[in-house]
Design brief:
shikimate kinase activity; binds magnesium ion; single chain; amino-acid biosynthesis; binds adenosine-5'-diphosphate; Rossmann fold; alpha/beta; cytoplasm; aromatic amino acid biosynthesis; 12% strand
Length: 170
């Protein structure tokens, strides 16, 4: 991978990875999409079948498979929770960018989306608590953090470019 995006659900990892991939003609790999492709099950189906532990085991296997592929990787919001996943991210030696949004903005962005089993039943306070509990894991592997609340996805992509001083021509 050339760039890895991490952060809480709704922070924009999937959206921004696609924008950067289009602009720089780089392949984009979304870990959730890859999990769905490999298992033939949706994310809610995987959680329903074996709970979060089952999903995390698959997520780890797929991360280990794809980490050395070229392109931009959008992780899932829980990917950095496992120490072995954080080690894989760090060992890739590519920039790891942490995208952030407030709980209120997160609720606005994903509140009606049923495709995220861990967020589906949480109100804004629940999202804030889960996000706070994960903060250290994100910080442990991030090279830098972008606050996305006031930014469009395109502006987030531009903020990442500015931090990386990407030189590849569009
Ligand atoms: N900077 C942003 N401003 C407003 N909406 C955003 C922004 N980034 C993402 N979104 C929206 O939030 C939702 C979740 O984005 P997504 O890229 O799937 O996040 P993630 O992959 O981090 O969970 C989508 O509807 C997306 O269009
Ligand atoms: O935060 C999490 O634990 C999860 C985030 C999701 O990815 P997004 O962050 O892209 O929504 C997906 O991997 C799964 O629903 C679990
Ligand atoms: Mg995503």
């Amino acid at each position: 991978m050339e760039l890895i995006l991490i952060g809480f659900m709704g922070s924009g990892k999937t959206t921004v990875s696609q924008l950067l991939g289009q602009k720089y003609h780089l392949p984009v790999l979304d870990l959730d999409d890859e999990i769905v492709a490999q298992t033939g099950q949706s994310i809610p189906e995987i959680f329903a079948a074996g709970g979060e532990a089952h999903f995390r085991a698959i997520e780890h296997q797929v991360l280990a498979q794809v980490i050395d592929q070229p392109g931009i990787l959008a992780t899932g919001g829980g990917t950095p929770l496992r120490e072995d996943n954080r080690a894989l991210l760090k060992a890739s030696h590519v920039p790891v960018v942490h995208l952030r949004a407030t709980a209120a903005e997160t609720k606005r962005r994903i509140g009606h989306d049923q495709n995220r089993p861990l967020a589906a039943k949480l109100d804004q306070t629940g999202l804030a608590k889960l996000k706070a509990a994960r903060h250290a894991a994100y910080q442990a592997c991030a090279d830098f953090t972008i606050e996305t609340n006031q930014l469009t996805p395109l502006e987030v992509a531009q903020a990442i470019e500015a931090r990386l001083s990407l030189t590849v021509q569009p």
